[in-house]
Amino acid sequence: MPTNQSKPGAEDVAQYLRAHPEFFEAHTDLLASITVPHSHGGRAISLQERQLDVLRERHRMLEMRMAELIRIGQENDAITDKLQRWTRQLLLVDDASRLAQTLLDGMHTGFNVPHLALRLWSLREPYLDSPFAEPVALDIITLTNSIRQPYCGPNADFQAAAWLPEGGTLTRSIALLPLRKGLDPNAFGLLVMGSPDPGRFQSGMGTAFLERIAETASAALSRLVT
Description:
Layout (H helix, E strand, L loop, with lengths): L9 H10 L3 H4 L1 H6 L1 E3 L6 E3 H45 L7 H12 L4 E6 L17 H9 L4 E4 L18 E7 L9 E7 L12 H14 L5
Antiparallel strand pairs: 1-2, 3-6, 4-5, 5-6
Helix pairs in contact: 4-5, 4-7
C-alpha cells in the first residue's frame, strides 16, 4: 500500500553520512563492495580507490598552487631588486640637472619600459630650458591633478601620449603616474609609460609597484620644482 513518505534523495544520503562518520566502520564490507565510475572514465573502481584518486588530485592542485606562489615570490623579489638599484642610481646623482635623464634611463634599462616621457611644471629657474620643461596644456595638468593613483589601460588618445616616441602612435597600452610632493593634492609633473604590447598596462591590474615608482620619482624630482 503506497505511503506519503518520500524516498530519500542523494542529498539526504550525503547529509546522513556526514552526520554519521562511523557508518562505514560498522559496515566495512561496503567499502570493498561499492564501486563508482573512474574520474577519467573507463572501468568502475572501489570507493577506496576513488578516495585515493580524490586525495591525489587535491595533492596535485596544492603542488600547482605552491609552484605558483613560489613563482610570484620570485618575481616580486626580482622587482624589488630592480627598484632598489634604480633608487640607488637616483640617490647617487649629485647634479640635479641629470636627475630626469637618469630616472628615464634607469626605467628603460632596469624595468624594460620601451616608451617613456616626462614633463614637469613649476620648475626652478635653472631648469626652465630642460627637455622635460616643455609647455604642458592646462587640460593635462587638470587631468594629472585628478589622478589619485597610477592609471593603467589602453592608449585612448591621451594628450600626454603625444609626448611618447612617434607621437604615441606605436603605443597600445599606457600608464600615467602623477608626481607630487608628499600629500600635496596638486601634481608638479607627469611620468608617462607606454608599450606597444596592449597587455603590458591593463586596466584593473595592481598598481602597488607603480605607486612605489611614482613616490620615488616624485621624491627625486622634487629638487627641481618650487
